[in-house]
Amino acid sequence: MIEVEGLAFAYPDGRQVLFGVDLAIARGERVAVLGPNGAGKTTLMLHLNGILTPGAGSVRVDGVPVTAPNMRDVRRRVGLVFQDPDDQLFMPTVGQDVAFGPANLGVRGADLAERVREALAAVGLDEFADRAPHHLSLGERRRAAVATVLAMRPDVLVLDEPSANLDPAGRRELAEVLTGLDLTLLMVTHDLPYALQLCPRSVILDGGVIAVDGATVDLLADEALLAAHRLELPFGFDPRYSIAKSTGLMP
Ligand SMILES: Nc1ncnc2c1ncn2[C@@H]1O[C@H](COP(=O)(O)OP(=O)(O)OP(=O)(O)O)[C@@H](O)[C@H]1O
User: Fold this and answer.
1) CB-based contacts of 66: which residues, under 8 Å, 6+ apart?
2) Which family does it belong to (predicted)?
3) Quick one: which of 128, 135, 176, 233 is 20 to 30 A from 219 by CA?
4) pLDDT, tens only, 63-119
5) Residue 75 in contact with ligand 1 by CB distance below 6 A
């Protein structure tokens, strides 16, 4: 579904951030992108729907090159959810925000209403269509931002630090929404337990390259590996025990 090959990128000020990223993600996979501050995670994410253009290398989505002529198709297929929901919610009501993307694609009338209803239901905000986004909690706003993207019926959902600043209940509610979606999912996060809960596979991006790619539980159980990439588990968190417990192998 996603094929990134030899992706290199420097910002206009000359700062080189990506140095040849290779990453292949199959349809339906859920993958976490881990790594220290400044590793280039957001920069990588912004290439997946063409907000940034590679200096070298290529990005393809379901075989379609992420290049200017294909941008409309790519932007429909790949939905980006930014860390700050206020970057995505700018209309007077949540329903209008969710309708905005598909309306731009030419969806109208009953079809548009159905898309809005479906997207809000998918994130558990059925009753929120007429509410003003700025009256919602952060957790509700982040789920509303996910709905604005789901309304486009994308193939891929890319999320930048989805659990950041959420309270435990908001964090769990969003996890329930995300695990219930039948989509390819790529999630940038510093929240290692969240990566373990949502994504069977993780990659560590460090120094602008994919340094490690493997099963999330194996990566998180490797203390030396985590330390080498400035990653730390919360106090007392044991990834193998958490997985065993969640799969019923432990009481
Ligand atoms: N518009 C920009 N112009 C110049 N440099 C930038 C720009 N945006 C980001 N950078 C730099 O690129 C590097 C990678 O940034 P990026 O946001 O991709 O990292 P990240 O891994 O997502 O970090 P974090 O975990 O802190 O969110 C950083 O050193 C950052 O300062």
Assistant:
1) 47, 48, 49, 50, 58, 59, 60, 74
2) Belongs to the ABC transporter superfamily.
3) 176
4) 999 999 999 999 999 999 999 999 999 999 999 999 999 999 899 999 999 999 999
5) no
